Amino acid sequence: MVAIEAPEDAYTAEPFVPGRGGLPALRRAAAECRGCPLHRDATQTVFGAGDADARVMLVGEQPGDQEDRRGKPFVGPAGQLLDRALEEAGIDPAEAYVTNAVKHFKFTQSEPRKRRIHKAPSLREMTACGPWLAAELAVVEPELIVVLGATAGKALLGSSFRVTRVRGTVLEEEIHGRPERLVPTVHPSSVLRSDDREAAYRGLVSDLKVAADALS
Fold first, then answer.
1. What's the alpha-carbon Rg for the chain, to the nearest Å?
2. I need a surface site. Which of 10, 100, 145, 151 has the fewest CB within 10 A?
3. Is the pLDDT of residue 29 over 60?
């Protein structure tokens, strides 16, 4: 008897990505994605959100606990901090598009009902989710991508990416077959974890000002 391979064993979202339609069609299709095993434990797919004609796209790592429960990206404490930093840097959060490299929450949990602890997605999981990010980029066609943190950077720019080396600079790279301009910075959650939160926040705002200048 031949074992039937489950869709998630192939580690690619490609079969689930529709060939046509805008963001609403992508969002509906992503809700049914079984492109990797992460969907099994997550509450739901958390797709990108925001202005379909946004000049800037912000790409984070993956949804967190609150995002997983509510089905929207960057709605927890890190998202609130990001909105504040964007406004201070001169970028209107309402005019941006926000998404994550991975669309399902990956976590560890010692016992049921215990707090779910974020766990970084693997390169294989990021690669599996890549077709969704490629589709979002193709529809939104942003003028600039703000890369939030090391995981998002590796998903977009490869495993050698180091956010500390290139944060606050404008990069020009080919991403999913498209020439893109990118400004890397830290993930806002790292600001919340920092021993010197104020200094970390100022650094984030400084990097976002580089992004704002690149859009002007």
1. 17
2. 10
3. yes
